[in-house]
Amino acid sequence: MTNHSVSNNSKEVDVDSVSSNSKEVDVDSVSNNSKEVDVNNKDSVSKNSKEVDDNYKDSVPKKEDIKVFYEEDEVEWKQLNHKSTPLSLIKEKIDDDQFAPVSIPDMVWMIPPHCNISPSELFGEKEMYLKRIAILTDSQIEFNKSKNRIEMWGGDENFDNLKEAARQFEDIANTVLERKKRGRNKTWDDWEKAERAPLTKKEEKKLERRKKREEEENKYKEMTNDPHPFYGFFVIPDSDIPIEQFIGKNGYMLDPVRIKFKCHIWHEPKHSYIKVVGKNDESVEEASLRVRGLFVKVFAYKSIPPRGWVFHMLEPPNKPHKVRIADPPSWFIKPYDVLDFKLLEPVFEGDKIPIVGKEDASKELDQSFDPAILQGIRESNSKNIEDAFVKALQHIHLLDEVIKIRIRIGHVCLTRFPQRKDSNPLWAIDKFEKVLKNPRILSKFATCLATKDEQLDKLFDDLIFRSKAWEKSNESRKDEKETRELDYSTCCQELDGSPFREFKIYAIRKIPDSENESWPCSFDVKVERYENEKGKIDRSSNSSKRTDRTHDKNDKIGLWDAVLNEKDILDISMACLDSSYSWKILIQTARRLSNDKIGAQGNFVYKLRICPKGRLVYSNTKEINVLSVCEKTKWKYWWLKDYIIEITKYEYWNLSEHQDSPPGIDIPLSKEPSPIVTYGITLYNKSWDEVSFNSNLEPGEVPEWYPHEIVDEEKTGGINSLMKDINNFIEIIQKNVKIY
């Protein structure tokens, strides 16, 4: 386009560079002071253009003249459009904006004009969302009303954060649009839908097959009076259990059984039984067993105590000791939800202890060590653990939920304990073992073994040494072509892909159509590690440091699981007096939620991502509000023949302050480091993973495992072998991990 110059008050103005307040200037017809521009005169245009360029060079503003330059530019524009504005008003406007950025924005985000979104909907009340995003992304963000756009400043070093801010505004806009669409009336939605194209022959056949299948399935959902050659009955033995508790409302839990075995199943309230009829003997029998399984599941689960079965036991020492209930040392890291507690402290018999009330006096402890009594306690512990294991597993055998069995290493912290009537603070082993059986005793288990990576260096060195020795023995065995079975007594090998990374997210699950109904739930989200870098432990003989690549921007969100109603079924705490560490067996259950991608859980998880700094970024949804996040980094080792060792780094964020954050606002964990970092150790038998498949059971289905197999001596070695292996592993920890 050709540049045209307009003379006005001895000033040259480049018309193409003039833009203000969405008003246009007709360049070819501009006249001022009754003077016309000769558009067709090329020589004149060239001359005037040169004058404009020269004047432009001379008029480049200096830094100190920026305010004056804007003022003059504003005046020239007003004169060009034949409008006169008082200079006082122009100065007032400039003074109001003197603190606003005068540089070109590093990034802008235009509000989509076709979306019909108002700034109040996009930014919230008093621009709350805009301010929060600015704080979270360390950038300066302002809304330009005249240009209907968001302007952002942050510099080149903060460009990723500006992109993140723009993405968050897009998410908010999409959320507002979805909410508006859901709020439209039916007529508008129908008007908006496109006309359906005619079905193809393939689609018609598919639709026809679907209708036939649905008609066949619905046929078995109804009660029938037609005669059938085979029938069965299940008499309900316990009338205290409501019928809807195990067959569901209107018997919906029986629908999968009806459809799979093609039987009619219904409840007869007068006779208190469930009738099953069908055309096949085997199908009727299988369906009757499924109905029985549904009832047994509910009946067994109902008899579990609210807190599960809790046991406190004492591992007898190999030396003559007594027990004292003592205050924890100042360096001890307490469990996260406990304020006051006590620890069990062994006192060697024969040591001198102070006498209460006499500062300078002391006395020798009486010898009361009886090996026969201590051996009886060990045998009693083994029998009690086996009985508790079988009992707990029998009650959850048919439960179609997630089941987990784990052994934790740590310390037993008594929160409710007995007080002696006399002044003697010491307990004999056999007497205190009986005291621990009192159900009134309460405890928590402290699982923190370290707070820094360096405190576990010796343990990692030991495991790496064992792993190399195991690999060397296997290589020599292959070279010699031996046919004898492997000796797993020294087996130790790190799992491929270690360390593994995952997140535990605790949240509140809301009911969309309810105002106050909600319940706590949790998400277990695994991370797919970057393939080119495994992050394995890298140690040499000269250095014991570990290459801990736990955060990578190329990591991605992987498999996930969502559960609610987490419950402890069995809790056995074993206090070991011969060691600085104790152990605990825990059996837990939880009901799995749907992992449908378009459901409430899927909508939340598929918005999770890893930020450029390698940390998690999440946003609340209409149904899911996050309370806290625990990031876990797990180093896993295969130990002996059947065990998996997990050394876990826990990084915990309490995010309750962001619980009410509106949907679409991203909250990155990289904003501040985790205030709580701890390390813990877990041990479990690989065969125990079999019980976790219960979550895939169909209604009334019996799993392939049985409770007695978990403690069977031939299959797993039994409880005695388990306790021996646990004590051997604790010896390894005792030798390599110092108490803080």
UniProtKB/TrEMBL annotation:
Feature: compositional bias, Basic and acidic residues: 35-58
Residue stretches of biased makeup (Polar residues): 1-10
Signal sequence, renumbered to the chain: none
Sequence ranges assigned to domain DUF7905 in this UniProt record: 374-713
InterPro entries linked to this entry: DUF7905 (IPR057227)
Top-rank taxon: Eukaryota
Region listing for Disordered, in residue ranges: 1-58, 202-223
Protein name: DUF7905 domain-containing protein
Lineage of source species: Eukaryota, Fungi, Fungi incertae sedis, Mucoromycota, Glomeromycotina
